[in-house]
Design a protein that fits this description.
The structure holds 2 protein chains of 2 kinds.
Chain A (H helix, E strand, L loop, with lengths): L4 E3 L2 E4 L5 E6 L6 E8 L3 E9 L2 E4 L8 E7 L2 E6 L8 E8 L7 E2 L3 E5 L1
Parallel strand pairs in A: 2-11
Antiparallel strand pairs in A: 1-3, 3-8, 4-5, 4-9, 5-6, 7-8, 9-10, 9-11
Chain B lengths: L3 E3 L4 E4 L4 E7 L6 E7 L6 E6 L3 E5 L2 E6 L4 E6 L8 E8 L6 E3 L3 E6 L1
Parallel strand pairs in B: 2-11
Antiparallel strand pairs in B: 1-3, 3-8, 4-5, 4-9, 6-7, 7-8, 9-10, 9-11
Classes of the chains: A mainly beta, B mainly beta.
C-alpha cells in the first residue's frame, strides 16, 4: 500500500510568488496534518483536518497560508505571496480512525529566494 | 517552558551500548506519547508509542512512561551505527488531536 505522497519534493521560487504543496493521504486514513520543519523551530503543526474538515488551524503562521481538503484523499497547502522566511521542509501526515499515530510523507523542501 | 523538551544532544554512544533518550512534557492531561526517528534529509518515522505508565518493549527498543513525573524515555539496546538519527519525542495534547513534537535528540552510534 502506498504511503503518504507529497509533491513536489523540492520547490524553489521567488519571493512574492504563489506556492502550492500537495498531499495524498494513505487510503482509508481520515485525519490529515500539515507540519513545517526548520532548524530553528523544529517540527510545527500548521493545520489539522479530520474527515475533510479543518479542526485546528492555530498553527498557520499568517493569512498568506491556506489549506484545503477538497476530498477525502487529497490536500493542498498554499502560500501566497511567499517570503524567504517560509523556506522550510513541509510535511504532510495522515492517521486512521482517531488513532493518534501519524504517518509522514517524504516532505517538500521549499526555498524562497 | 516548552511543551515538550528534549536534550538536543548530540548523544554519542559506542556500538553495542545502551542509548538512553529522555523527554519531559508540560501538559499533565496528555495520554499518548510517541517516539519518531528521523534520518537526515528524511521524514519522521514512528518507532514506538506508549499510553500507560511503565515500560513497553519492542525488539531493541523500550519506551518508558512516568505520568506523575511527566517523563518519557526511549532506550535502545545493542545500539547500531544504523540507529544514528534524530529521535523526536511527541505528545498528544489533552484535547486529543494536536501532537506536539520536541526539538529532537541527535544520536550518534560509533562503530
Amino acid at each position: 500500500d502506498a504511503g503518504v505522497i507529497q509533491s513536489p519534493r523540492h520547490e524553489v521560487t521567488e519571493m512574492g510568488q504563489e506556492v502550492t504543496l500537495r498531499c495524498k493521504l494513505i487510503s482509508g486514513h481520515n485525519s490529515l496534518f500539515w507540519y513545517r520543519q526548520t532548524m530553528m523551530r523544529g517540527l510545527e503543526l500548521l493545520i489539522y483536518f479530520n474527515n475533510n474538515v479543518p479542526i485546528d488551524d492555530s498553527g498557520m503562521p499568517e493569512d498568506r497560508f491556506s489549506a484545503k481538503m477538497p476530498n477525502a484523499s487529497f490536500s493542498t497547502l498554499k502560500i501566497q505571496p511567499s517570503e524567504p522566511r517560509d523556506s522550510a521542509v513541509y510535511f504532510c501526515a495522515s492517521s486512521f480512525g482517531g488513532r493518534p499515530e501519524a504517518f509522514f510523507g517524504q516532505g517538500t523542501r521549499l526555498t524562497v529566494v | 517552558q516548552k511543551e515538550v523538551e528534549q536534550n538536543s544532544g548530540p548523544l554519542s554512544v559506542p556500538e553495542g551500548a545502551i542509548a538512553s533518550l529522555n523527554c519531559t512534557y508540560s501538559d499533565r492531561g496528555s495520554q499518548s506519547f510517541f517516539w519518531y526517528r528521523q534520518y537526515s534529509g528524511k521524514s519522521p518515522e514512528l518507532i514506538m508509542f506508549i499510553y500507560s505508565n511503565g515500560d513497553k518493549e519492542d525488539g531493541r527498543f523500550t519506551a518508558q512512561l512516568n505520568k506523575a513525573s511527566q517523563y518519557v524515555s526511549l532506550l535502545i539496546r545493542d545500539s547500531q551505527p544504523s540507529d544514528s538519527a534524530t529521535y523526536l519525542c511527541a505528545v498528544l495534547n489533552t484535547g486529543g488531536f494536536k501532537t506536539i513534537f520536541g526539538a529532537g535528540t541527535r544520536l550518534f552510534v560509533k562503530a
